Amino acid sequence: MTGTVYLYAAPVMGLVALLFILYLNGKINRVDEGTKRMAEIGLAIREGAMAFLKREYTYLFIFIVAMVVFLLIVSFLVGPDRMPPSTAIAYVIGAVCSIGAGFIGMRVATKANVRTTNAARQSLNQALGVAFAGGSVMGMAVVGLGMLGLGIVNLIFQGNSAIINGFSLGASSVALFARVGGGIYTKAADVGADLVGKVEAGIPEDDPRNPAVIADNVGDNVGDVAGMGADLYESYVGSVVSTIAIASALGIANGSLVPLLIAAFGILSSIIGSFFVRTSEGGNPQAALNMATLVASIVAIVGSYFIITSFLPASFNVGQDTYTSTGVFIATIAGLIAGVLIGRITEYYTSANYAPVKEIARSSLTGAATNIIAGFSTGMLSTALPVIVVAVAILLAHRFAGLYGIALAAVGMLATTGTTVGVDAYGPIADNAGGIAEQAELAHDVRERTDNLDAVGNTTAAIAKGFAIGSAALTALALFSAYTQVAGIKAIDFMKPEVIVGAFIGGMLIFLFAALTMKAVGRAASDMIEEVRRQFREIPGIMEGKNRPDYAHCVSISTAAALREMVVPGLLAVIVPIVVGVLPFLGKEALGGLLAGAVVTGFLVAVMMANAGGAWDNAKKYIEGGQHGGKGSPAHAAAVCGDTVGDPFKDTSGPAMNILIKLMSIVALVFAPLFF
Amino acid sequence: MTGTVYLYAAPVMGLVALLFILYLNGKINRVDEGTKRMAEIGLAIREGAMAFLKREYTYLFIFIVAMVVFLLIVSFLVGPDRMPPSTAIAYVIGAVCSIGAGFIGMRVATKANVRTTNAARQSLNQALGVAFAGGSVMGMAVVGLGMLGLGIVNLIFQGNSAIINGFSLGASSVALFARVGGGIYTKAADVGADLVGKVEAGIPEDDPRNPAVIADNVGDNVGDVAGMGADLYESYVGSVVSTIAIASALGIANGSLVPLLIAAFGILSSIIGSFFVRTSEGGNPQAALNMATLVASIVAIVGSYFIITSFLPASFNVGQDTYTSTGVFIATIAGLIAGVLIGRITEYYTSANYAPVKEIARSSLTGAATNIIAGFSTGMLSTALPVIVVAVAILLAHRFAGLYGIALAAVGMLATTGTTVGVDAYGPIADNAGGIAEQAELAHDVRERTDNLDAVGNTTAAIAKGFAIGSAALTALALFSAYTQVAGIKAIDFMKPEVIVGAFIGGMLIFLFAALTMKAVGRAASDMIEEVRRQFREIPGIMEGKNRPDYAHCVSISTAAALREMVVPGLLAVIVPIVVGVLPFLGKEALGGLLAGAVVTGFLVAVMMANAGGAWDNAKKYIEGGQHGGKGSPAHAAAVCGDTVGDPFKDTSGPAMNILIKLMSIVALVFAPLFF
Questions:
Q1: Which pLDDT score, from 0 to 100, does residue A453 have?
Q2: Does the interface predicted TM-score (ipTM) exceed 0.90?
Q3: Considering the entire predicted model, what is its pTM?
Q4: Residue A228: partners with Cβ closer than 8 Å, 6 or more residues away
């Protein structure tokens, strides 16, 4: 089968996803906001989230304009044959679609939170339905706008991969701000709210007297809805774009169409899966969410099989190698299965049901130091299995379909992105719903239902983190492979000193980026702490509940700090690869070494930080559940210390690694014409 | 100049070093042991240290026998042309020389400690003289037995590099046990002594009522004398051996002689430098030690210049490249200068005189969690400059002398190993001297002098750690280069999936090794804690000072635990590279990728852990000096937590990285004939 008519599948399925958003939105709107107090709190969170986005867009606007100018200069320097000026157009479209997805997702998530609380006044199933519908909007926005934008760019520019790469660069630019800036924001707000509110003023979590409480609730949305969405949007787009680039470079007939069709069909799979989310009162919401993922995966696998065998010849040659369509299918599902396995491994290392978290909890008995060492070493240990899974996926994908197979493995892993993002974004909505129940002082059983939803959110968040890391690694490798093809590199040989040096620089950038983002959280948090202390001091009657604190100012302070702090690491990520690529004594092979060093080290650090952070968090919760003396015991104090260390690990620096490895790879791919 | 007579320079200079040991030993023996109590404590430490060594040798014996059998089997499999059976002989000699160096060094260090205490009853300069003489014995034993053994092996086997490689494998085997086993031992004893003694029983550090006090003092010697000595012996030998292997493979005339001569001459430089160590009462011992390093470095540089220009032609060809003797000299001193710079950078990040440690101390004001985050991010940040230094050294060395240059850079860095080990081993002797003064309840001014010596020891230890990491990275790269030549690898191409997978496995092994060694410290420490608690419970009158605790049993418990715990990580380090090399779908290029991934990640993790650990330690000392509330304040408690986390970082897992990257590289080099 062939024909340009199939090229319309991607934008059309993108539109279908957007229509599904309208349906979900209607479903959410039908639920009432509840009491006046609930509506007020909901509004404050919504306004705070939008204030963050607005400020982020201002920074992004400057960044995007600068990048467009730079792209045009490079295009002028190397000539339109090697870099068409339209790359800048694709870049802007890629960025705008990601911004749009984040905007829609946040808008609806901050509408669904308060409605989830209200639905929880009726039943668990209704609350689950609202929360999951809210999360699904983010998922559908990511895949819908991704496919719509990429599909249209592909149609307009007739599959010219040099131009299409720009779309992926746009996705990465937004992901940098949303994920890294958002990651700094969410932890600065969290630490600020906790340290002054809980520790200094002695008021409970989510207490409305805490000036930073809304900023903290906003942070959940900024980090886990918009941040995770932009991260997976970047992977989703990057995997398809790199497959198109590789297929073009290798001249595989219909090779560019297949990833678009698999991704487009994945939208349908996710929509089908979403109808399987329901639970009974006292049921387990986790099982409902797992069902959605399972159904979506099976539908996606079956669809991929038919797409691949219909559009690729049963057997075809690439250079001296012969591949079969069955082999391509195996490569594709190798990625999908690897994604699921990494999620499960993450769950093992971060859930209180298994030995690692229990051991960390036990080590809290001898104090904070042993808790830290236990969590840290568990995080390091937890890298072993994911590495083996990724290694097997790479070897299988390459054996059966070469570089094209590695890229398609990433596409396969990301086929069900709609469901994954939906399940993940459900978490902060449930978390917010609990916070609103607390602040609005609702009945005990309401909070119980939202707590039930929220507990599941922690597990899904951990699994989604593992999935995001795995997909980032595969996408970065796919982009890296595309870069080697476009730059005409014959070998990236570690026996050459410039490649070794490149690998050292790549690994070092990972450590540097992790260090800078961790330090950024510290500084942004202290801005927040100052502001909360100032409000307690200067606004009379806050503690007595007579006067409302100035929530908006806290949001604004921590937004400004977060975005200010991400400038330096962000610029590093864009500039260093280009500098290494153009320097005469380093060059394009050294840049290949840099990307290799960064992917390997970045994957390890990302897994380590995400799992250590998740494990510390759940070890604390395990103790709070009554183990080892429970809340208020010395073991609990030690576990709180570990959890605080883990916060920037799992929500700022760890996820930042995903962005960094993909961003540097796409920068190398887009600017390859600059390097000789 | 040429002629086999120069081949005798290495063993002769080795003998000179051994004679110098006799001189130093005489100097130490002339000092009295002091009071009866002092002599008793000195004896207990000496006996404990020897008990550790004896047990270590038992394990080592089994390991060495197994390795000899394995070498002979491989030799039989691949034929004596590709691996001569005599490799096993060279292996045993290399191991025995390292064991001998450790034995001599420990023997004299545990004699010098109590004599340093006694000398401190007279004057600071006399105490410095004894402590430095004790440290120098370890330094001279390392270089003396290294050059004697390697020189003789080189003579007997007429420069057959396949055989000589075995010598380096022997060095690495002993280093594994001394550094990793020793690292676990020292921290298990330290944590055990502190947790039960200081925290539970409330008795001060170094109190004779603490059953683990001798084990703790023994640990200083085991870790910083024998461990560091074996680590640098491994680097010293490995750099020379890899240079010989590369020179043989590339057919550089006199190319094998030059590294031997530079190393042999380095012994002379170190002896000359050692005569510059003196200070006045109230003077700064640091300045005296710096002077020794400076003089030794200058003499080594001048000597290297004459050796290189005399023995290498002014200009010569290697393949298509032309190198000059001046270029080779530049490559050599690039390594030496890089070593000095990395030491200085380490000092900046770990000394309380500079901003990083002060910031960690300040962050202790907000609790343990912020202290941990600050130390951790400082450690990660501190990798940037060392990477740049190593990168410049690699690029310079390769530009001026190719792979041969990279190997010679490592030799250049290690030329002054005698001084470096001497200065480093001085530290634990001074530390022990302080402990003995405390336990023997000597006058306040004695403890003041030993504290003065000890404070310097912390800085020199940090510098030596930086140097050990830098030398390990360069040596591993040199061994890696030698491996590629011997295995006949044309390129280690990261575009091949098996190389990508190799790099992932290499990086993962680093994380795994770090995790396993950290967990090992925890388990070994808990064995120790149980034993101390048992003694307090079962031996009456310990706390009243009426009954002596059973020191020896504590030593034995923690020795057994340490050696037991290192079996799994040790086997991993030997077996995984061989398995990757022989597996048909991975193979020798994948093994190259593994080594590359391990060197890059290992260097980063080693620097991070060493510097974070050193910085935490000194931040605690800085607060103890009266800052931020001083001893007993909440900030101090937070800093103690950081210091405890830092202990296994800087003294166990961090240094273990040095061993791991060198060991895996030499395993690859020696067993290269197995891989197809």
A1: 86
A2: yes
A3: 0.94
A4: A179, A421, A424, A425, A464, A468, A655
